[in-house]
Design brief:
The chain is mainly alpha-helical. It has 5 domains: 71 residues, Orthogonal Bundle (Arc Repressor Mutant, subunit A); 65 residues; 65 residues; 57 residues; 57 residues, Arc Repressor Mutant, subunit A, CATH 1.10.10. 49% of the residues lie in helices and 11% in strands.
């Protein structure tokens, strides 16, 4: 089609069920089509920011933004009223409503794709949603990541809430239980903004917190990124979190795969994990045979002889080898032979009372 031909798009209606969405852009002006294709990655490539598009064609970011706005208006006029288009919007509004009126961009679009009721790609669905007036698109800014939301929510209110959250945790200096904090936010906002019914909905807060750039939600807690318990960056903290979730001793070779179940972004090597376990023996206890537990679980660690001393002192009586081995296994995985060797080796600490029975030598 010749792009120089002037067309009245108000008189054109396109059936998007039978037409490839990209082909609809042929009715836009060349610059408009170019901007939408690049901005939304409709050709299968990554989305390109407006500033980069402007730089590529020697235009300012503001001029590219104006072209984008015009293109979206024209695109909407071309497909408004179309049954498939209305179904997409209806489904998006339904999903947003049941999730508290707010969802991060990737979450909403993934939910729509997973429904498997539309033929559109993620990029095409985003173009349809951004072009609409009923579903509001929140562009990434210094406070929030990209998201979609429904009225009566509005951007100034969302920004005000972000500032309140930041001030709250700056003063508190530690994380808080997620639902306790949701209760605090309800007390501070739901009463003052009664017409914004989503502020009474827990799901709104859960999804809204996920979009805030300087807030982390992790393991049922919320706080600032510098709070280690909601943002475990180091291998040590990831090991600690994973072992707490497993809640039982584990072999160090099994830990990397378990850690990656919770933190899948980066591969973790066995040697790296083992080094951290050995280096941080104030936190992690070697129970023998490569198995580690947490000191906070009551494990004290140490050499076999040290553990034997503790067992005798704790029980305050002579004990047979079978009893000693049973108690030993609660703290360290060693064989009965190792227990016997230590009892016989340290004659200044342990004395045989009778066959198979020993006691500690009290000084």
């Amino acid at each position: 089609m010749n792009f120089n031909v002037k067309m009245d798009d108000k008189k054109i209606k396109v059936d998007i069920e039978k037409t490839n969405l990209k082909d609809i852009l042929i009715y836009c002006k060349p610059k408009e089509r170019l901007v939408l294709m690049k901005k939304f990655g409709l050709d299968g490539s990554k989305e390109i920011p407006l500033q980069r598009i402007g730089k590529e064609y020697s235009l300012t970011r503001e001029r590219i933004r104006q072209i984008e706005t015009q293109a979206l208006m024209r695109f909407r006029r071309l497909i408004v009223g179309n049954e498939v288009y209305m179904e997409v919007l209806s489904e998006a509004k339904k999903i947003l409503d049941v999730h508290g009126g707010f969802l991060c961009e990737d979450v909403l679009i993934s939910k729509m794709v997973n429904k498997n009721i539309f033929k559109f790609s993620k990029q095409e669905l985003k173009l349809i949603l951004v072009s609409d007036f009923d579903v509001t698109y929140l562009k990434r800014n210094k406070f929030l990541n990209k998201a979609f939301y429904l009225e009566p929510l509005y951007e100034d209110l969302l920004t005000k809430m972000v500032l309140e959250i930041s001030a709250y945790f700056d003063k508190r200096t530690k994380s808080q239980d997620l639902y306790e904090f949701i209760g605090y936010m309800k007390d501070n906002f739901a009463k003052d903004y009664k017409d914004v019914h989503y502020l009474k909905n827990d799901l709104f807060y859960v999804n809204f917190f996920e979009s805030i750039r300087e807030v982390n939600v992790f393991d049922g807690k919320i706080g600032l990124p510098e709070f280690a318990d909601v943002n475990p960056k180091t291998i040590k903290l990831k090991i600690l979190y994973t072992m707490r979730r497993i809640n039982k001793p584990i072999h160090f070779q099994e830990l990397p795969s378990k850690i990656m179940e919770w933190f899948p972004a980066k591969n973790i090597k066995v040697n790296t994990v083992h080094n951290e376990l050995v280096k941080n023996n104030d936190m992690f206890v070697n129970l023998g045979l490569g198995i580690y537990g947490l000191r906070e679980w009551g494990y004290q660690g140490g050499q076999v002889v040290d553990i034997l001393v503790r067992i005798f002192e704790r029980n305050d009586r002579p004990m047979n080898v079978k009893e000693l081995c049973k108690e030993m296994l609660k703290e360290k995985m060693v064989s009965p032979n190792t227990v016997m060797l230590n009892l016989q080796k340290y004659k200044d600490l342990f004395r045989r009372v009778e066959k198979g029975v020993y006691e500690i030598i009290k000084k």
